[in-house]
């Protein structure tokens, strides 16, 4: 612990210390699945390091303990004094391009441009935009999909869904339920650069497709934001010989639609160019004040300076970081079951349909398993196996991998059939993609299934001699 940094810049140290001292090594090992000696080895490495950058990706975020996980990573950085100076900091890795930027533009129900959907930011944005914002910010993606299946008389019943990109059929848990929900909508609108499996589903009345230009074709160029807060200007690339005549810049589609929905407020969004939109961004999100000057390839702006919390001063009322104490969660491990971990790989997502992952040469239906677990289960590499639980069934092939005993890995989105819908992280409502499964040899599973469903006596037939 960097006690000097903690004294000068951190709150709640004694509370955290007291909480940790109450936790036994037995609890820690059981919940984490990691042995005491390995944890001590890592802690010694961290204690001997003068600098550190804490980097994490979807493995910490795509389940119900996501915010708790990140809070403890931040705790570690605060305890070591690893922020606010060169060669130190915290940085998440996002799953797609400019996820950071879209969030900072308010593209989720919990935020507005420049901050949270709270009273202070609501009042600020209403002054910038000159109209009143709704009091209710809306629901997360998972909840809205569930709302499509509500009774007709429910006030939250979803009847029209406007989707800008995305493929919920291949990104959300329980694809069969998602398919039913998307087909239960009256009208579905897909604004996208490609057709995907969600686009091809029916709806009760109509499915409308609005062809959009790619990020490299946007009239007037656009912006992309990286997780280190670098905002890049992305110019329109000239000379495209395969231009789709019907495709339009995304911002032009939004503006035309908004003018038709609320013609009385059309003058408030009468933008004529990408430059005018960047000027508006600089007003609506104070952190982005500077992007209006990005005009050509290579132009970049980093908000907040080279590193945040410079000198240990945090953006809190008292300028200090706040340590967060939490109890050890119960991972509910059951004998004979494995933890299923989703793997995004380097290649696969809901837009790429290759057969092999370029990163680890894993096939779409590979099941990553440690050699020792495979040996215990009597499984050879390449052998057909079935993963199953109450949610669904996945059939694949064993592939030995450097993965901890008690865990198996499959690719997202193929493994989504095993993930239960309706389980979300408490704060941002990220679906929980970690679940418990059983593993069986495919021939054993199928034989048991045949016996269960086909060899059961049928009294009517037994009593009838014919």
CATH class of the largest domain: Alpha Beta
Number of strands: 18
Portion in beta strands: 15-25%
The CATH architecture of the largest domain comes to 3-Layer(aba) Sandwich
CATH topology name of the largest domain, in short, is: Rossmann fold
Radius of gyration: 26 Å
Average pLDDT reading:
88
Q: Could you say which overall geometry the principal axes of the C-alpha atoms support?
A: globular
Query: How many domains would you count in the coordinates?
Result: 3
Topology (elements, then pairings):
Elements (H helix, E strand, L loop, with lengths): L2 H7 E2 L1 H9 L3 H8 L3 H12 L5 E4 L1 H4 L4 H15 L8 E4 L6 H6 L6 E2 L2 E2 L2 H11 L11 H7 L12 E5 L10 H9 L3 E6 L13 E6 L10 E4 L4 E5 L15 H12 L12 H11 L15 E3 L18 E2 L15 E6 L22 E4 L1 H6 L7 E5 L4 E8 L6 E5 L23 E7 H13 L4 H5 L3
Parallel strand pairs: 1-12, 2-3, 6-7, 7-8, 13-17, 14-16
Antiparallel strand pairs: 4-5, 9-10, 10-11, 13-18, 14-17, 15-16, 15-18
């Amino acid at each position: 612990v960097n006690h000097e940094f903690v004294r000068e810049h951190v709150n709640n140290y004694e509370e955290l210390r007291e909480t940790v001292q109450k936790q036994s090594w037995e609890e820690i090992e059981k919940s984490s699945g990691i042995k005491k000696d390995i944890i001590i080895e890592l802690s010694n490495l961290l204690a001997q390091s003068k600098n550190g950058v804490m980097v994490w990706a979807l493995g910490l975020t795509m389940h119900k303990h996501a915010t708790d996980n990140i809070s403890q990573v931040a705790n570690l950085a605060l305890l070591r004094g690893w922020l606010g100076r060169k060669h130190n900091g915290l940085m998440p890795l996002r799953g797609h391009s400019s996820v950071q930027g879209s969030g900072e533009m308010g593209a989720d129900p919990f935020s507005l441009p420049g901050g949270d959907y709270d009273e202070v930011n609501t009042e600020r944005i209403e002054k910038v935009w000159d109209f009143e914002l709704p009091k209710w910010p809306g629901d997360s993606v998972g909840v809205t999909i569930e709302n499509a299946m509500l009774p007709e008389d429910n006030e939250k019943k979803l009847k029209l869904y406007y989707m800008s990109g995305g493929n919920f059929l291949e990104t959300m848990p329980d694809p069969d339920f998602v398919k039913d929900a998307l087909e239960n909508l009256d009208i579905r609108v897909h604004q996208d650069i490609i057709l995907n499996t969600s686009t091809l589903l029916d709806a009760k009345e109509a499915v409308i497709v609005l062809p959009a230009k790619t990020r490299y074709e946007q009239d007037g160029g656009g912006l992309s934001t990286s997780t280190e807060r670098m905002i890049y200007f992305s110019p329109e690339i000239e000379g495209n010989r395969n231009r789709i005549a019907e495709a339009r810049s995304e911002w032009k589609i939004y503006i035309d639609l908004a003018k038709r929905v609320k013609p009385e407020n059309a003058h408030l969004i009468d933008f004529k160019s990408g430059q005018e939109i960047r000027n508006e961004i600089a007003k609506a999100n104070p952190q982005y004040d500077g992007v209006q000057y990005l005009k050509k390839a290579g132009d970049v702006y980093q908000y907040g300076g080279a590193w945040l919390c410079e000198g240990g001063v945090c953006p809190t009322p008292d300028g200090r970081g706040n340590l967060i104490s939490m109890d050890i969660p119960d991972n509910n491990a059951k004998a004979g079951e494995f933890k299923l971990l989703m793997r995004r790989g380097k290649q696969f997502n809901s837009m790429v349909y290759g057969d092999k992952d370029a990163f680890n040469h894993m096939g779409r239906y590979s099941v990553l398993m440690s050699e020792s677990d495979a040996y215990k289960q009597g499984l050879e590499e390449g052998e057909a196996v079935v993963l199953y639980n109450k949610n669904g069934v996945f059939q694949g092939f064993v592939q030995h991998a450097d993965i901890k005993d008690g865990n198996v890995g499959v690719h997202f989105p193929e493994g989504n059939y095993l993930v239960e819908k309706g389980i979300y992280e408490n704060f941002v409502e990220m679906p929980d993609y970690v679940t418990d499964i059983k593993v069986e040899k495919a021939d054993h599973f199928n034989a048991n299934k045949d016996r269960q469903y086909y060899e059961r006596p049928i009294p009517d037939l037994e009593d009838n001699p014919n």
